[in-house]
């Protein structure tokens, strides 16, 4: 019985670690955080079903989709965006089939470090204006001033400072929750300054069904969103290798990368059916597994159950939506910069030689297309941001001549093992 209670408490702890990032994505994109909690729990259970509950993995909101979701909601509406995200999840399913047929090395040939590094950098750097605008009290696109400049700076900078101090100096499990620490401090400062509005909390009941949204399917939105799935697929492979390094098991072989990709894809598609953001495996939780040695997948089952339960507490969801935008902006300055740093680290640790003209061309064009705002297409349908640069990087990698062909994931494994080693020594 004691072991059972320990599993339950460990599950609550895992949700606590994932919580900050999990709800931050819907708050940034205008989606419902309660729905995000529900779909994260549901997605985790679907992933466990697909992988026969062999991996201690938790799925939460994907940061790779933030900019595409914001653009798609503004252009086609929330329902059409959900339909597009459903189809993006099907891209994972297609990848899982290809991996099952051709082996895991297929992904390395399609997405080597020279492709994945700059794509991940584009995700972080492309979101930099959103973070800065919100830190200055504006909307993410900078079109409206929600808080005065002075108030915004007084809130966003303490949130940023707290986040970076916790990420740098905290020990143990507390090092894994810098986002929550930043939110707490920023929120307390906001309360002191009187810029938090509790009207919606007072009008919401304690128990309430989350605001689910049914998807609609529009071809233009679908074609725009499909390429975005490339980026979280990259992240997924890294997380599978990382959790394998921590637990000492080869999850690429058993349950198999095709099963993990299938679970991730079905979780993303299922989330869209309820109006939630896409799901992805969470590195924060992988770090918590490394610290706590909670290798039992049942722990993640309990984390999923707690997430689903929280989704139905109406006042809790309303409280999350009272967090002022400058609080989130301050945190995102570090968060989005860190994403760009991960992409740079992939290039460095994989020893991608930018002195080689082929590699330089791929990285240079990908970065400028992604960050510069290049758009290809018509007014009815076009590609931009992560959608465009992901396809461009893959296309250039396939057509430009290269000296050798590597058919395994050893480069990705080396990068992950180096990261895990640094994490253990902190």
From TrEMBL:
Family: Belongs to the nucleobase:cation symporter-2 (NCS2) (TC 2.A.40) family.
PROSITE patterns noted in UniProt: XANTH_URACIL_PERMASE (PS01116)
Domain of life, source organism: Bacteria
Subcellular location(s) of the protein: Cell membrane
The UniProt record lists the keyword Cytoplasm: no
PANTHER family: PURINE PERMEASE C1399.01C-RELATED, URIC ACID TRANSPORTER UACT
Record membrane topology: Multi-pass membrane protein
Gene name, Swiss-Prot/TrEMBL: pyrP
Pfam families referenced in this protein's UniProt entry, alphabetically: Xan_ur_permease (PF00860)
Organism the protein comes from: Marinomonas aquimarina
Full protein name: Uracil permease
Keyword Transport belongs to the record: yes
Cross-referenced InterPro entries: NCS2 (IPR006043), Xan_ur_permease (IPR006042)
Any one GO molecular function term: xanthine transmembrane transporter activity
GO cellular component: plasma membrane
Keyword set, alphabetical order: Cell membrane, Membrane, Transmembrane, Transmembrane helix, Transport
């Amino acid at each position: 019985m004691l072991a059972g209670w320990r599993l339950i408490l460990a599950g609550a702890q895992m949700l606590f670690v994932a919580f900050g990032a999990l709800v931050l994505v819907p708050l940034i994109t205008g989606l419902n955080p309660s729905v995000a909690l529900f779909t994260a729990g549901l997605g985790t259970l679907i992933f466990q079903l697909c992988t026969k509950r062999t991996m201690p993995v938790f799925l939460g909101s994907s940061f790779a989709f933030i900019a595409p979701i914001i653009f798609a909601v503004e252009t086609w509406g929330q329902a059409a965006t959900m339909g597009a995200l459903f189809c993006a999840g099907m891209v994972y399913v297609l990848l899982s089939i290809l991996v099952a047929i051709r082996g895991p090395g297929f992904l390395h040939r399609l997405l080597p470090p020279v492709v994945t590094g700059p794509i991940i950098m584009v995700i972080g750097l492309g979101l930099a204006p959103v973070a800065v605008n919100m830190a200055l009290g504006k909307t993410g696109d900078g079109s409206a001033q929600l808080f005065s400049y002075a108030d915004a700076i007084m809130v966003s900078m303490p949130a940023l400072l707290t986040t970076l101090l916790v990420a740098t100096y905290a020990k143990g499990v507390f090092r894994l929750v810098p986002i929550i620490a930043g939110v707490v401090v920023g929120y307390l400062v906001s309360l002191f300054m009187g810029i938090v509005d509790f009207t919606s909390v007072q009008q919401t009941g304690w128990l309430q069904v989350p605001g689910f949204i049914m998807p609609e399917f529009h071809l233009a939105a679908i074609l725009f969103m499909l390429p975005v799935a490339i980026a979280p697929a990259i992240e997924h492979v890294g997380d599978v290798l990382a959790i394998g390094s921590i637990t000492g098991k080869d999850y690429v072989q058993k349950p198999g990368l095709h099963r993990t990709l299938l679970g991730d894809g079905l979780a993303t598609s299922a989330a869209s059916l309820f109006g939630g953001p896409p799901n992805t495996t969470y590195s924060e939780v992988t770090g918590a597994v490394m610290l706590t040695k909670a290798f039992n997948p049942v722990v993640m089952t309990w984390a999923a159950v707690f997430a689903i339960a929280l989704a139905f507490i109406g006042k809790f969801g309303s409280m999350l939506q009272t967090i002022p935008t400058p609080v989130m902006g301050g945190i995102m300055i570090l968060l989005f910069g860190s994403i760009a740093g991960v992409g740079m680290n992939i290039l460095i640790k994989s020893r991608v030689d930018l002195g080689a003209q082929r590699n330089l061309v791929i990285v240079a064009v990908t970065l400028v297309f992604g960050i510069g705002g290049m758009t290809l297409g018509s007014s009815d349908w076009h590609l931009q941001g992560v959608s465009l640069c992901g396809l461009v990087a893959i296309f250039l990698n396939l057509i430009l001549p290269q000296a050798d062909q590597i058919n395994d994931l050893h480069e990705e494994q080396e990068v992950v093992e180096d990261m895990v080693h640094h994490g253990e020594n902190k």
